[in-house]
Amino acid sequence: MAVKHKLIHVDDVVPESMQGEQGWAISEFRLPITGADGSSTTVFHSIFRPGSTHKKHLHTKSDEIALYLSGRGVVGQSDGRAVVRPGHCRLMPKGTPHFYFNESKDEPSTCIGFYIGADSVAGSGYQFVGDVTQADIDAPRNGITEGILVHIDDVAPEKMEAKEGWSITDFRLPISKKNGSTTTVFRAKFMPGAVHKKHRHDNCEEIYYIISGHGLVGADSDVAEVRAGHFHFVPKGVEHWAYNLSKTEPLEVIGLYIGAGNVEETGYVYMGDVTDADINAKRTL
User: Fold this and answer.
1) Range 130-134, long-range pairs (CB < 8 A, 24+ positions)
2) Which of 111, 121, 162, 201 has its CA at a distance of 20 to 30 angstroms from the CA of residue 82?
């Protein structure tokens, strides 16, 4: 049975054929969620093999958010340079040129990202603006001054209310209104048995990605098992929940509240417990 709201594993998404002459020297680029799925925002999954790069480019119509999952690379934002590793979260404002280069000789680099408010790559206003030169790579890596770059380890966990359904072990907001963003990035860790109970967001869409673990998620009448590599799109106003099925391993999730600067702005409404009947319901995927 098909799910009502887009839930897909990255392995089931066909890689795009991007044009090298437009700066796309990326080994693998997939679009698991786009406007064709009802989303306001396009989601990408990129793998950079050693030595590969996404050359200098910008988006005239949308901000871009990138979340780095594996490997190590050099990023440029206008004249700024920095090194990123797993756990870094980055916001690139629309109209500012940027690039990514995997300088490893033997390790691939993976990131997921979002063109905020753009239903496609073309809808983001993508423009190629030039090669990444050796001088760009060798420039001092003193950080960036445009946009946001933060590591999850430097972000304090939020104190969420269990009575409002927040039975999550560790919940952090690396990008939010606190550092100037109108969209919130969250990272959540569910230890065995932990759950985010039934709730909805009346003011925003939510998109999240399973980093690791094995869980059960619900949205409307959908109930499905998820594992590392799954993306889930939850439209505004749709009741949803998540539960860690493992008895030994954490379930780790990262995602966005699109167009909401904090949890309050999402229009969060607690809807009730996740019951045994919910957990034992027939899977729709």
Assistant:
1) 130/55, 130/56, 130/97, 131/55, 131/56, 132/53, 132/55, 132/56, 132/76, 132/99, 132/101
2) 121
